[in-house]
Amino acid sequence: xxxxxxxxxxxxxxxxxxxxxxxxxxxxxxxxxxxxxxxxxxxxxxxxxxxxxxxxxxxxxxxxxxxxxxxxxxxx
Length: 76
Prior knowledge:
There is one protein chain. The chain has 76 residues and is mainly alpha-helical. The chain has 4 helices and no strands. It has helices at 2-6, 9-21, 29-39, 45-71. The two termini are 16 Å apart.
């Protein structure tokens, strides 16, 4: 998990914002996938992988924030 400490906070933040919104037109994938989840049509492995792929930077950012709070290290 030390590799997360070496990744710059700003990079993770920008990657998270980009991946949560990509593709921006016609609608973000996560919006489409959440709609599919609500309708019960999120069943294809590629769609499930896509959800995890788009949430990966947000997950890494959350892990980094938790590690920073527990360790008392500086953000950077």
